[in-house]
Amino acid sequence: MRRIRWVAVLWAALLLPGTVAAEDPWQTLEVARRGLAENGPTIADFVHTYKAADFDATDRETGRLALSLPRCLRWDYLDPDPKNILICDDQVYAWNPEDGAGHHYEVDPDREAGLDLLLLSTEDLRLRYRADAKDTEDGLTIITLQPMEGAQIKLGRLVIQKATSRLVALEYEDLGGGASRFEISGYRGLEDQKLFEPPTDVEWTDR
After folding, report:
1. What is the DSSP letter of 13?
2. Which of 143, 74, 142, 153 is nearest to 112 (CA)?
3. How many distinct structural domains can be found in the chain?
4. Any residues with CB less than 8 A from the CB of 152 and at least 6 apart, and which?
5. Predicted pLDDT of residue 4
């Protein structure tokens, strides 16, 4: 299972055609982040594609993403290989729902490129990324983030729908040349707070 590097959150595709300069990218990102937090727990559908640097084939996976910001994120991969990842503060739980076994470990959100985008403040992010924003003709704002020295990615992009200030895609290229893209859709409210608690029927191994 690929670890937190693909959790996070960034990307490496070229800018879409038909773009124009947008307003302050940090303000756009802050509005989107604040909206996710203020709307309360949310769930959405995602499609995750990943292409390794040395392979022509692209892996495609689908599932659900649950958010309770600024503390918790949860990925439930459904197809083709079920797996779950829950992150709350600095605690990570990763498990396979079919075999009842999982791993528990700690991370430092301040040091995890990608994960920091949702768990750190916008002001903190400004200290580690340079940002540029472009608006597209179909109502999207593309924010390109160039990491400072010491970051764990080469380049990242967030795609935000202007009408709703929703994050609809994120892409990143890791230091090894692998490229990930998450397409996010179907946001809706989430009432089941138990999704942000590690399941009690899983045998956890600490590492």
Report:
1. P
2. 153
3. 1
4. 5, 112, 113, 114, 174, 175
5. 42
Residue in this structure with the two tokens 């690929």, named with its chain if needed: 2
In a domain, 206, yes or no: no
Say if residue 147 is preceded by a cis peptide, omega within 30 of 0: no
Share of the chain above pLDDT 70, in %: 81
Confidence of residue 48 (pLDDT cuts 50, 70, 90): very high
Q: Does 107 reside within a domain? A: yes
- Tell whether 55 is covered by a domain: yes
3-state secondary structure of 193: helix
CA 45 to each of CA 104, 121, 155, 164: distance values in angstroms, whole numbers, following the listed order? 25, 25, 24, 16
DSSP 116-141: HHHHS-HHHHHTTEEEEEEEETTSEE
**Which structural domain range is residue 102 located in?**
4-187
Cβ–Cβ < 8 Å for 109, 125: no
Q: What is the pLDDT of residues 86-105, one digit of tens each?
A: 999 889 999 998 888 999 99
Residue 205: helix, strand or coil by DSSP?
A: strand
User: Which tens digits make up the pLDDT trace of 173-201?
Assistant: 877 788 888 999 999 999 888 999 999 99
Token pair, residue 113, equals 């490129």
Largest pairwise CA distance in the chain: 51
The CATH number covering residue 132 comes to 2.50.20.10
The number of residues making up the chain comes to: 207
Query: Would you give the DSSP letter of residue 23?
Result: S
C-alpha dihedral sign at 55, 113, 12, 2:
positive
Domain assignment present for 69: yes
